[in-house]
Amino acid sequence: MARPIRFDVTRRGVLAAGLATAVARPSWSADGLTVFAAASLKPALDEIVDGWDVALAYGGSGTLARQVASGAPADVILLAATDWMDWLSGQGALTRPPMTVARNRLVLAAAPDVGAVPLSRAAIVAALGHGRMAMGDPMSVPAGRYAQQALETLGLWEALSDRLILTNDVRAVLAYVARGDVTLGAVYGSDAVGTGVGIAAQFPASSHAPIVYPGAVVSDRPEAVAFLDHVAASAHVFAAHGFAA
């Protein structure tokens, strides 16, 4: 069986305008906070940080977690999966216990003219035609791991595993769908808000682990604690951007 195709879309420069994610190398000031955040948080977090002296670096959760564990100068880290945060805690990288800042849902994004696609092998294969489906790489991207769990639970993984393009983060999946490079892509519900792409289906919550965004402080700066509290108290902003309650 053919293997899924893995693309480093950030390095290859193929992200659509407005959807590109930053590598964790921000230009931070001596006084401002440096925050590493999962790429899917970008629309909401860009609004939440208004008024704060914060340098944001977006990327895949696994990549960001490994950079922090290696000593990257972050003050706060916001991830899209608890397992990477648990791993960071085990590395001794956190100065305080993590807290949940947001939740999300997993959907099948599609071009607006595709319409609803039942979550069955026949329907998805028919929608794909001769093309491929995009999703985050399960090895490092939580959205990809949730997608693999959902496809396995629904009995679809074996049929689709050789039709996949795997990306470095979930926003790259959305870029592929938005440009028409692929017909379908597994993304978070919040990713599809205001982008012009359609939602062909929503994966049952029971088909994958709960999508929880934990945040934690990784420096000893009091401002970092205050900022994380601010993010956790911004449920209304997350809701406005399509995150789950």
TrEMBL record:
**Could you tell me which Gene3D superfamilies the record lists for this protein?**
Periplasmic binding protein-like II (3.40.190.10)
Matching Pfam families: SBP_bac_11
Q: What superkingdom heads the lineage?
A: Bacteria
Cite the GO molecular-function annotations of the record: metal ion binding; molybdate ion binding; tungstate binding
Gene designation: modA
What is the official name of this protein in its record? Answer: Molybdate-binding periplasmic protein
For this UniProt record, give its keywords in alphabetical order, as a comma-separated list: Metal-binding, Molybdenum, Signal
GO CC terms:
outer membrane-bounded periplasmic space
Q: Say which family it is in.
A: Belongs to the bacterial solute-binding protein ModA family.
Q: What phylogenetic lineage does the species belong to?
A: Bacteria, Pseudomonadati, Pseudomonadota, Alphaproteobacteria, Rhodobacterales
- The entry marks the following residues as binding molybdate, namely S40, S61, A143, V170, Y188
Assembly mode:
The complex is composed of two ATP-binding proteins (ModC), two transmembrane proteins (ModB) and a solute-binding protein (ModA).
The UniProt entry, under SUPFAM superfamilies, shows: Periplasmic binding protein-like II (SSF53850)
**Single Gene Ontology BP term?**
molybdate ion transport
Cited InterPro entries: ModA, ModA/WtpA, TAT_signal
